[in-house]
């Protein structure tokens, strides 16, 4: 079952959303000028993107930490390829913070100068698949596939927006030496949020005092984010949630895939994962067979 052209188009081996971007704009990003102070969050969808956006905003902006500024994170840490708010990225003051789902080979060429920083966040792909499935039922810019088994086969084949999780993680991992990159997992952030924030701060060269650090951690918890209009995308209900009631941030837990996948589906997933990733070095702190 092929994806509907109403919801995705393929360009240079990667599926994009036609309502949000054009092939010409994607091509223009190759020459996008990178500053040494730029910071890029890179994720596959539903892997902790909004969470990491919120953390970066809290680290860099005192007004976010103390509540004196009411700016949403989609403006603080905007999307590189999906500039839906028509922001002037060229004249944006440094340090510029960006978010992207792009594969390694489509990011700006100058990002390989190894001076600008990349934070790659990965999540157990079973949880990603289930979260993606539920989100597609809410978002009008994603194709709704009511049968999870059909969605799972699409997901494993990379026939969804942002293509294959397996290829995305594999690509960034095997080409990590080309970038100044920090790899994190959703799972380690859930298990030790303060430790993850400290790791991010060290990578960025940002020093926060104990009070500032505690404020970042407190405001970066899932429950706090879900009720903070600045820290989630619920304000975009008009073009994200017209299909039904729900929140952009759903559960935010580890292991929710067990509530959706059958044993057969889990085994099918494991077999594809092992074959595709068999020669990949252990970059991430979880294993597909972990009871998470």
TrEMBL record:
This is Sulfotransferase. Belongs to the sulfotransferase 1 family. InterPro entries: P-loop_NTPase, Sulfotransferase_dom. It comes from Chrysemys picta bellii (Western painted turtle). Its EC number is 2.8.2.-. GO terms for cellular component: cytoplasm. It comes from the Eukaryota. SUPFAM superfamilies: P-loop containing nucleoside triphosphate hydrolases. It is found in: Cytoplasm. GO terms for molecular function: sulfotransferase activity. Keywords: Cytoplasm, Transferase.
